[in-house]
Amino acid sequence: MESIILQKDSWYIILCLIAGVLYAGALYYKQKNLQDKSIYLVIFLFFLRFLSVSLISFLLLSPLYKSINEHKKEPVLIVAQDYSSSITNSYPKSELDKINSNIKSLKEKLKSKFDVQEYSIGGDIQPGLSDTFNLKRTNISSLIDYLNETYDQNEVADIILSSDGIYNEGENPIYTKLKLNAPVYSIALGDTTVRKDLFVNSVFYNDYMFLGDKTAIEIDVQAKNLKKVNSSLKLWEISPNNKLISQKNIKIDNDDFFNSNIIEINPNKEGINHYRVELTPVEGEITVKNNTKDIYIEVVDSKLYIAILANNPHPDISAIKDNLSQKKNYRVDVLFDTKSVNPKKYDLLIYFNLPSKRNNISSIRNIAADSKIPELFIVGTKTDLVQFNESQNLLKIKDNSQNLNNSQAILNEDFELFIIDNLKDSKIENFPPLVVPFGDYIVSPESRILLYQKINNIATKYPLILLSSNSNDRTGVIVGNNLFKWRLYESLQNKENTVLKNMLSQIVQFLTVKKDKSQWRVKSSKKIYFETEPISFYAELFNDNYETVNSPEAYLKIINNKGQEFDYVFSREGTHYKVAVERFPVGDYTFVAKVKLGEKSFSKKSKFKVIKQELEKFDLVAHHDILNIISKNTGGEMFFPGEIDKLTDKLIKSDQKPVILYSEKTNMLLDYKWIFALILFLLSLEWFIRRYNGSF
After folding, report:
1. Which side of the chain, N or C, has fewer Cβ within a 10 Å radius?
2. Parallel, antiparallel, or unpaired for β 243-252 and 156-163?
């Protein structure tokens, strides 16, 4: 549909026509040079001038040209195939190839009616279909989350989910709400038959502990349909000594057997200690792959003692302590009687709403300053701002009203002192507001702001969390109370609490880190990775004045235990270096990072380990009940692999219709060059005829 829109009243068109008539009439009325010519020629010339002048007059009204285009879009059909390795336990390779072929041919049969979009399900969701069932994780709920984020509510017509229903990451997909108005048709793969199997169901242990401490490993053993069979549970220390630590007989007394065992160990080597849980295989098992499970425990030879000093109890104190206590080398004390505190016992002092009017903690601060003990101030409703301003040099809050604000957080993208996992993806700006003091905030040049304040939905440059960049002044400030609400919010949103925990952990680590005087500092994000995880390295280079620089090229070499080398170049991120590498096979690796600054060459060397992801080998019974519930909850239906043709016919015969989309486009008529070409043609034709007939 096309139309011309006037920005003036329509009667202006009549004025344009009158202007054309008057102009042409004035030009050709009784023109002497044309009196001996045919009247028809004069009329034709009159018409050409009338038309050109009228068009020019009309364009002066700035008319608009509006066009509406119609576009037909086929309804979207999602085909999602589970490619996790658990499916291989139920089918031979020929049957797996057939399943894959049937899913791929389904697209060919339905593409005339649907816009078929395919996805592979594993730990992550990947576009397209694969050829092999070899993925190490299954997260069905992540598919639902992905579809909710990718598509509009009414954009998808139908969803086909082909899976065995077994998941080992994410939440139960039954409880992940699909926000799209589309039924889910599930294809139930795998076998629901409970077959003979003995397996290590789960192992509970601390993966981080201190040298000299004892720790317990809890091993849950499960058996199916193996009544009156005996086995043996063994715990091996693979490294450093490769020896048998414990052995225990397991008597299976029923067909649905479960047994929990606790074994205490005392690692005596600092570093990564490798252990293996093993069940002796028994006759008739469907598989022995799940009879063993490897675990890794990092043993460190250091402890960090933290004191939280406060006037009164507050939910924030519990939230801070609980989050920090999850780090096994942190020992956290909460002290309300500040008069009896010995600051020298601690590696970090956290002042919660201190100093206050009733407790100025000046004697504690004097000892902390003399002993160079790091300090973290949490400024809240009871903090005496006058004393706070005198206690540190990072931040001054000028306030005479004693009023408070509610402030949400905004991430400072340029913060560079350390990296907090998942912070950029956490949408921290949506977290509940903290209660902060009202006033003017004056920030020291040595401060580095991690989070800014957002007050009444207005972004400010007031700091919410800031730290000193001066290595001789390890001080930090968190402005605001009600951090516990962040913890509750995150638990409700993500079923876990990682942002506050990681943030507090990194702040404490930064404040308490021993001063590293080396000019080239390199670390990997972890020491132990699963084979499905990408690996990241971070580095800092300092010049002779200990200013961070990253102008020289920096190089990373990773060497596996076979001597193979993999070379990378660090990329620059802010004033630092970073490199993210692809996933590596299981094994032990050494990395060497090198850089040259002027005539000086620097090199750092360390190790990391990649371990197996064994989630797929423990749950071998298909969960068709989960698939059936997902389908029923969305108005869909469950089918079996032999019923794919039935599912195809159902979708072909469905009443899904193409969506008609309309796009509207409006332009100034002056934008179309052909109109000017037309006017030029009319005037040129008129001029040529006049000249040809002797009239100028």
Report:
1. C
2. unpaired
